[in-house]
Design brief:
Layout lengths: L2 H8 L4 H16 L2 H11 L8 E3 L2 E3 L3 E3 L10 H6 L4 E7 L12 E4 L4 E4 L8 H14 L5 E6 L10 H12 L5 E5 L14 H14 L6 E5 L5 H11 L6 E4 L11 H10 L3 E4 L3 H15 L5 E4 L5 H9 L4 E4 L1 H6 L3 H12 L1
Parallel strand pairs: 3-4, 3-13, 4-7, 7-8, 8-9, 9-10, 10-12, 12-13
Antiparallel strand pairs: 1-2, 5-6, 6-11
Helix pairs in contact: 6-7, 8-10, 11-13
The structure holds flavin mononucleotide.
Flavin mononucleotide binds next to β4, β6, β11 and α12.
Length: 346
């Protein structure tokens, strides 16, 4: 009830400032045990009937937070308090990165969308893995943590596989599954790594290191042509890829109405997320699911705001769903709302 008012206030601030104030506020609230209990009672979905095992991991519920929200794994307890079944941290790169110059995150409120060109700003592997190790040492929470990994901007594509391997080694002990991110539009040339030979190299090297059989997934762009999707489907029967995340943000501005296309022109480069992405990412998901004939699970990401949106992803073949932009527009009750809806419809 109160979130629309809070959102109006937050939307008066620049998006990154609003993000950091909200997370710090949540952190303060969670540090008071009474308040933490109240918030958990308000936002968590208490029934256990949504627990789901996927790529060998038991997820407390199928609603996760997409990569890029808690890039530095700094707010996991707070996000768990809000009811997420899993959180994908990162994208983590071996060395710390400042990302692109601000402004780099923009709202398009009348279509419930965002455009971002963050550029993998993160504190880097060493700090993030230490934070996760410290958390693990004092906390046995059931929250599932995914490690979304990428390459540094300065790393040439030909050496990118080494960055993925460095990240893998540094995070292996502290995350439950990995996601290879080659689909962000904000690191120059990164999306070229979605081509078959590059993926084969990255996954072969990672699986070579993967003595404990950690699930390693691939996150894909929604802008790939059918032929590229077919290549990826074929690759999954050639090399061990444990699942897919479909999809990342899009560079396609035709999903916006005419007025917002003008606005987007002024904003410039970046990935579009939120409601306009819903159908496009579901189409990719459906195509992949049919091509894979259910061989490996798919996590849906893109435009999920409601239980009906989540259900449309599950009907298209998703095993789990992730939200990001929906969290900004709908507020913290989004997780419970989606869980409630899924528990009555699945
Ligand atoms: C500001 C912002 C930063 C993001 N950063 C990352 C990232 O670092 N790595 C990644 O794989 N995806 C990143 N994403 C993409 C989201 O994880 C998600 O796949 C995408 O936004 C589509 O979902 P949505 O429509 O629910 O937002 C980012 C999205 C936004 C809006």
């Amino acid at each position: 009830m109160w979130y629309p008012i809070a959102r109006n206030l937050l939307f008066m601030l620049p998006p990154e400032t609003a993000h950091s104030i909200s997370m710090q506020g949540l952190h303060q609230a969670a540090s008071i045990p009474f308040l933490k209990k109240q918030l958990a009672a308000q936002f968590q979905y208490p029934e256990k009937n949504l627990a789901k095992t996927c790529f060998g991991i038991k997820f407390p519920n199928p609603v996760g937070l997409g990569a890029g929200f808690d890039k530095n794994a700094a707010y996991l307890d707070e996000l768990e308090m809000l009811g997420f079944g899993f959180v994908e941290i990162g994208t983590v790169t071996p060395k710390p990165q400042a990302g692109n110059a601000a402004p780099r995150l923009f709202r398009i409120p009348d279509q419930k969308a965002l455009i971002n060109r963050m550029g993998f700003n993160n504190e880097g592997l060493d700090i993030i893995s230490k934070r996760l190790k410290d958390r693990k040492a004092k906390n046995n929470s059931p929250l599932i943590i995914g490690g979304n990994i990428g390459k540094n901007k300065v790393t040439e594509n030909s050496a990118a596989w080494m960055d993925y391997c460095t990240n893998f080694k540094g995070l292996e002990e502290v995350v439950d599954y990995f996601v290879v991110n080659v689909s962000s539009p904000n690191t120059p040339g990164l999306r070229e790594l979605q081509e078959k030979e590059s993926l084969r190299k990255i996954f072969a090297e990672l699986q070579n290191l993967n003595k404990n059989n950690k699930p390693i997934l691939l996150k894909m762009a929604p802008d790939l042509e059918r032929a590229a999707l077919d290549d990826i489907i074929a690759l999954t029967s050639e090399i061990k890829i444990d699942g897919l995340v479909a999809t990342n943000t899009t560079i396609d501005r035709s999903l916006l109405n005419a007025l917002n296309q003008e606005k987007a022109k002024k904003i410039g480069a970046g990935g579009l997320s939120g409601q306009p992405l819903l159908e496009k990412s579901t189409e990719v998901l459906k195509y992949l699911h049919q091509g894979l004939a259910g061989r490996i699970p798919i996590i849906a990401s893109g435009g999920i705001f409601t239980g009906a949106d989540a259900l449309s992803k599950i009907n298209a073949g998703a095993s789990l769903v992730q939200i990001w932009t929906g969290f900004i527009y709908e507020g913290p009750s989004i997780v419970k709302n989606i869980c409630q809806s899924l528990s009555t419809h699945t």
